What does this fold into?
Amino acid sequence: MPKLDDNATQSITKVIAASSLGTLIEWYDFYIFGSLAVIIGHQLFPSDAGASALINTLAIFAAGFIVRPFGALVFGRLGDLIGRKYTFLLTLVLMGGSTFLIGLIPSYSSIGYAAPILVLILRLVQGLALGGEYGGAATYVAEHAPPGKRGFFTSWIQTTATLGLFLSLGVIVGTKNILGAEAFADWGWRIPFLLSILLVGVSIYIRMKMHESPVFSKLKSEGKISANPLKESFQKKANFKMVLLALFGATMGQGVIWYTGQFYAQSFLENTCKLDFNESRYILLWAILFATPFFVVFGSWSDKVGRKWIMLSGMLLGIIFYRPIYQYFIDATNVGEFQKTELVSVSEPVISSEYIEDKADSVITSTVVKTLKSGGTFKEISVQTIHADKTLAAEERKISFADVTLSSVTYWIIIGLVFFQVLLVTMVYGPIAAFLVELFPTQIRYTSMSLPYHIGNGVFGGLVPFIATLVASFQGSTPLSGLWYPIGIAALSFVIGAVYINNKGDSEVMD
Amino acid sequence: MNALKRILGILWIVLGPTIIIFLVMQAIEKIAAATEGIARTNTTLQWSIIIIIFIPICAGLMIFGYYALKGEYDRLPQNSEEL
It folds into this structure.
């Protein structure tokens, strides 16, 4: 093993802590947008566009993910040319700055279409920054870690993506509880964005004190830095074929498992099962809390038994169990059916009416809260249109359900099922940083590992909620149809990974 | 195992354009089914994004299949010197 310079004496604990904190904050910044997509849609998009506001926001959300691979190329190249430390400092500044500015954008009612355009621009900057961050942090930690411990050390970086989500959900739920739902929807949603500037400031201070990666410093002092990392990564067949293998045999499947477990599950519970806003988030928070230590467990275990089969087992379990799990979600929240036999009480109706000016019709909305024998509650919303001539609308009264809360037993079963999904996330995600780092040489590591990671996670994973929702809206589809996307992608990645990838990689990363 | 790797290479080569054709057909169907106005614009935008993203990825899958067919993955590099 080549001799390292004095920088190598830097405590590995400090290296992990400083790298992980910055990456955690970047994930926090990135997630609060996704978690608040509906409110942002109402505030920053045309108010009469209804569902289109949400779709537009989701499109921007997707745009945030789609530009990540470009961020990987831009900052990966920079990281291989000027060093890991300054590159992931830059990504942190860009991410923190753009998040803070999103919190300051005036509403659509104040500045019109400038609002959604500004959101789009800042969201793209966020995506670019995130694309550069992860590869740098993983590379930086891996290049400090001794052989045989790389999976363990880099798994701490892996926890940040989940902890960032945990932090973002915690801040959102906490802010909403303190301010109340109305104030939160009006202006309080800006607080999680504005708070970011403090977190980023602390992280920048800590990262400024870090030294450059010892392996990179050594290469630099020997004049062996790559002159053109992009060319060497993607035009040299021997390396490009490994980039393709990393993408199709690992990161593609890992990405969809991750986003299904940590995002689609919560979105499905809230939008399809009509679970209460807070309840769906608390479920995810508990699941993440219980599952997060397993990133380190599986990362460490991969040092002993190899990375491949742990990751592929996570994919296989997802392929087998997603549909039964989501079917249970639907069955356990079918309040329309439960009320036929389990209804205990019904509250006094709250009636509101809205006059539709252009048609001179009135829409009467009646809301009651119903309680079930099991202890669960839900709102039943009945909407009826009365025409100007006082006749009722020909179509039937529309009844929908909202704000479903669960009985204690069902609540914990669903937490268990979401926990199982996040556990699969830890299996595929815990070892992947070490796997990618060991696949590529130091000169082009940042560039080469960042691209497949961000295509796998940004494109394949990031589009899970978007494509799954799209598929579920097709004619003849069921609420479970959207799952075919993550299941299909995970199955393809599983086959490619099982056939083409070696279980033991190159444990030497100093070359 | 090497024979399987090579045979599957053909599948990956075929799968790339098949996915693109499937996506384009879906896009045409969904755009046509959307009501005129904002809904159609949105649908067109969504599908355009999806197709633009997946074209290079499917091209990558074809290249991956070609490499597999040619035996490039019969033996993976054991260290960075081989890259």
